Each structure stands twice: as structure tokens, then as C-alpha cells.
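I hope you will forgive my troubling you with a question about protein structure. Could you please explain, in whatever detail you think fit, how the C-alpha cells follow from the sequence? Thank you for your consideration; the sequence and its C-alpha cells are set out here.
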Amino acid sequence: MRNTWLLLGPALALELAVLFLPLFYIGFRSLYDWNPAGTSEFVGFENYYWLFTDPDFWEIVGNQLFYLLGLPLWVLAPLAVAYLLRESVWCAGLLRSIYFLPAVMSPAIVGLVFRSLLSTDGSVNAALDGMGLGSWTQSWLTHPDWVKPVVILMVLWAGFGTGVLIFTSAFAAVPRDLFEAAKLDGANFWQQFWYVAMPSISNTVVLWTMYQIVAIFLFMFGWIYVLTGGGPGLASATMDFSIYQQFIRFGFYGTAAAQTVVLVLSIALVPAIGYSIVALQRQFTGAQNR
């Protein structure tokens, strides 16, 4: 046990110094009318009051919840493709590499690609015009009804290859004897997927789902900043983008700190929910085995 703590100690100390101490400091500063260049007056929970009574904050929360509607797409699309690629597909390795290519691009590049394609005079509208579908052209990035679905598709494209890679690895760890036994019992392709593959990789599915939820709250800034700048208005803004705006652009440091605390607490719920799902699944599986 002592040797274990000797090995874990440096990593835990680094984690505390790099991650938790700054979070505690932000939480402390959220109780002040924070003025980095002067005296900061203690205001208690006033920053949180102004945050929760701000209609703009609730609009941004609504955006976050809307983006979560893309969660089934972000999970099921790479899952289905990874399962198809486990069969004898021509150049499966090449296809995986192509799918993974967007994952190595920075969010700025991904945002620029989509902004170029979906601008009013971009390739998508030009292609629709060329096919005689001019009535389908839209202001994809400046219309509040279309900008959030565009962001959902962009996140799918950017993370699709990573999901395929993770699920492919998970499928590779499932013993092939299970699939062969299912074939002998008359199970078709999709029955093997549902009754053999899915129970075997369920923990991986939960892990990927939790990662996608965390990403939607924490890793959207680069894409939103380049693609839409949070607009039109606040129609595409996310909480991490809003924190940047409050802190850097407007100088509302206390409000930004309070919003950071709310964001971190929201994210802390994700692992708790994920572990609860896994625990319930194990309990259900154990009950079935009895």
C-alpha cells in the first residue's frame, strides 16, 4: 500500500496543482466583484443571482440542451460504421484512416471548413442551385433555426473517426466464438449486433456517451468561435464561449467565475450518471444470470 501511494503521489500532486487549485480559486473569486487590477469587494452569491436571472444565460443553457439532441447521432453513427467495418470490407484500414482524418484537425480548421462550405455563397448553396434546388438554399450560419443543427453535424464530422476507432477496438476484443455460435443458432447480421456485440461493449458505449456529453460542455469554444462567433445573437453560443465573452470581452470577471463554477458542477454530474447506469446494468445482468 505504501508503494502504491509513492507511485500515485506525484501524479495526484500534479493533478491538484494544475486542475483543482485553480478551480478552488475560481470558486473563491466567484463570491467577489472581481477586479484583477484593483480591490475586489465581497458580494457573496450576488454573481450567481445575476447569472440565474439573466435571460441570456438561460438561452445559452437551452442551446446546450439542444446540442445534446445530437447525442444519439454522435454515438450510433460511429458505432454502426465500426460494426460494419469488422466484417470483410474492402480496404477497411484505409476507410478507418479517412474517417479519423477530421479528428487530427484543430477546431479552428474544422470551423473554417464548415464556414466556407455553408456560407451564403458557399459550396453547399451553389450545389443546391446547380441541381435546380435553389429554394432549398439557406443562410445556414446566420439563421437561428439552422445554425444549431449545423453545429451538431459539425461535431459529428469532427468526432466521427475517433468514435469509429474506439468502437472498432472494442469489437476486436469480443471473442469471435460468440459470433460464430450466434450464426449457428440462426442469428442474422443485426441480431448478432444487438444480442452479442452490444452487451459485450456496453461499457465502451457508456464511456463514449459520457465523453460526448462532457465535450459538448467543455470543448466547443474553438468551433463556435470560428464558425459562428456565438451568433446570430446568442443562437449558437455555448457556456464555455459565454465564459470567454464575459471574462475577456466584457470584463465581468465575477460573473464569468460564477458561470465557470456552474459549468464544472454540471459536468461533475456526468460521471455520476454514467457510473450509475453501469452499476444498474451490472445489477440487472447479475439478476438475469441467477
User: Anything to note?
Assistant: The domain at 37-289 is CATH 1.10.3720.10 (MetI-like fold). The mean pLDDT is 85. Residues 230 and 237 are 4 Å apart (CA to CA).
